[in-house]
Design goal:
6-stranded antiparallel β-sheet; 3-stranded antiparallel β-sheet; single chain; alpha+beta; elongated; disordered N terminus
Length: 187
Amino acid sequence: MKDDINIDVGEKIRNLRKSKKLSIANLSENTGLSVGLISQIERNKVVPSIKAMWRIANSLEVNIGYFFEEINEEDIIVRKEQRKQIQTNDSTKIYELLMPDLVNKNLELLLITLKNETKQNKELVNHEGEECGYIIKGKMKLIFETKEYILEEGDSFYFKSNLNHIYENYNKDEECVLICAMTPPSF
């Protein structure tokens, strides 16, 4: 029988462990599994038991299925015609998700279009996290606490999102388009 499954569980464990800045010794301590066993699992020298996988998954804060998921193009690529739009109560702003989804993500990447009739919204927002943006086209007004900043094509910004802020289009004759990253996701 031909084996069509080609999932590298050991590599997934190693990559996730490293992304969380854990050593093998840390993972060993958290799971109760030996350093040697974890090393062998990561190098695919040993097939772990379900109990060992459950301990590793819990320690790395994922469900056990994470290690057995195959990566498909749909999981990593977003074609421009397949972007998901995030609906809000402000039709003058279009938010398009530049990633497949927000499930179990620590980052949100958006393409934001501020239409030429963007409302002058005096209600500033705030939320947990950080924001960073880059203006691709047009001009934008960033209202930040009690100050206003005019940003043009090529300008960028960064701030802690717990401070009051809002984006508005500055030039009423053309749209403003920007890319914005937020962590954690706010939509």
